[in-house]
Amino acid sequence: MPESRAGEIFLQYFQANKDQVYEYALRMTGSSHDAGDISQEVFIKLFEKRDNLAGIKNIKAWLIVITRNLCLNHLRNKKREVPLEQIESTMPLHPNGDNSNYAILEKAMKGLKTKFREVLILREYQGFSYEEISEILQTTVTAVKSMLFNARTQLSENFHKINNGRII
Amino acid sequence: MNRCDRYREMISASLDHELSPAEVESLASHIGECRECAEFLGSLNDQREYFAERTDVKMPSEVETAILAKTVELTENISLVRRLFSGSMSIPKPVAWATAAVILILAVWSAIRPIAVQNAPAGSMTQSPDERVQRVVITDKDIVRTQTISKSDNL
Fold first, then answer.
1. At residue B138, what are phi and psi to the nearest 5 degrees?
2. Inter-chain contact A123–B57, Cβ cutoff 8 Å?
3. Rounded to an integer, what distance in angstroms lies between the CA atom of residue B146 and that of residue A104?
4. How far apart are CA A111 and CA A159, in angstroms?
5. Measured CA distances, A128 to A12, A14, A57, B72 (Å)
6. In this structure, what DSSP letter does residue B90 have?
7. For the purposes of burial, counting CB atoms within 10 Å of the CB of B128, is it exposed (0-12), middle (13-18) or buried (19 or more)?
8. DSSP assigned state of B122
9. Helix (H) and strand (E) counts in chain A
């Protein structure tokens, strides 16, 4: 594939970031099909920019910004705010079974508002720093700190509701 | 935001090591005397542990293959255009001449056609002497009917 040095650099970035982009899209949309489509769109955009990649300061954050925008458009179109009561786990990611704490946590995540879910995905799954999250979400570090606090509080409440059998 | 809320926000930030040493000290002192905030810290620590149970998500190989295939397709399209314009890709001479002739004929025809239509007699929609047209005929019994004739016939 690589016809040039730019093509080789694209391949390096693709290999280094493909799983992270896919995971972000999967956790935001809850659908492996949609995550595949969004990932493809993200990397085609990267490929089309391959001659100017040197101008991008933080490629990982740049890719997540593109992925995030596509996910938000997708969610807006599909209006996917799923009520906690209707949540079915669609991701086969529970190594310890569907009743494991992690499986319950994942269900609790899906019941969060999009803005809380995404800030937790960026921090807990993707490992971005507060500074990077503020760049991705185009907000301040203080706002990120506050958002994470609210997201964790809400997640904890959702977790206990599910775990105490009030919902399932 | 009350005093405990402020400390709980600090508890959340402490999980990410985003507190200054002074804040860490202040928080530790508060947790020592506030049971609710100590419980909140415990629940966030649990949360952190549960997140750690996750398995890694990998991009499925079919998605990876589709992306790389698309980039190959784009590369081929771009290089085809580049080769055509740089002259490094040659088209066989007969094909080139035939294509040029067809383009020339089409260009001349499209330039002449509007003039021919413009100069045609009013009411005439025919383009060729052999084209057949319909005309209205009134017979001796005043019956109106249509008749198809050739334009080369006497109209």
1. -105, 115
2. no
3. 83
4. 10
5. 20, 18, 15, 32
6. P
7. exposed
8. T
9. 7, 0
List CB contacts (< 8 A) between B40 and chain A: 156
Q: Looking at this predicted complex, what is its ipTM?
A: 0.80
Which residue in chain A is spatially nearest to B51 when comparing CA positions? A102
Q: How far apart are CA A24 and CA B57, in angstroms?
A: 9
Q: pLDDT (tens digit, 9 = 90+) per residue, A40-67? A: 999 999 999 888 887 888 899 999 999 9
Tokens of A80: 């996917």
How many other CB atoms sit within 10 Å of the CB of residue A84? 16
Determine contact, residues A31/A90, Cβ cutoff 8 Å: yes
Residues of A in contact with B47 (CB under 8 A): 105, 152, 155-156, 159
Q: Does the distance separating the beta carbons of A95 and B55 come in below 8 Å?
A: yes
Residue with tokens 């530790």: B28
How far apart are alpha carbons A80 and B155 in whole angstroms?
73
The Cα–Cα gap between A116 and A110 comes to 10
Can you say whether residue B142 is alpha, beta or left, with left for phi > 0 and alpha for psi between -120 and 50 degrees? left
Whether the model pTM is above 0.90? no
pLDDT in tens, B76-124: 776 666 666 666 666 677 887 888 888 889 888 888 876 666 665 555 4
For A101, the closest of B50, B58, B64 (CB atoms) is B50
Q: Which B residues 7-26 touch A at CB under 8 Å? A: 8-9, 12-13, 16, 18
Query: B117: which residues sit within 8 A by CB, 6+ positions away?
Result: none
Distance set, CA B67 to CA A37, A41, B56, B81 (Å): 9, 8, 21, 22
Closest Cβ–Cβ partner in B47, B48, B59 for A22: B59
Task: Compute the nearest-CA separation of B55 from chain A (Å).
Answer: 6
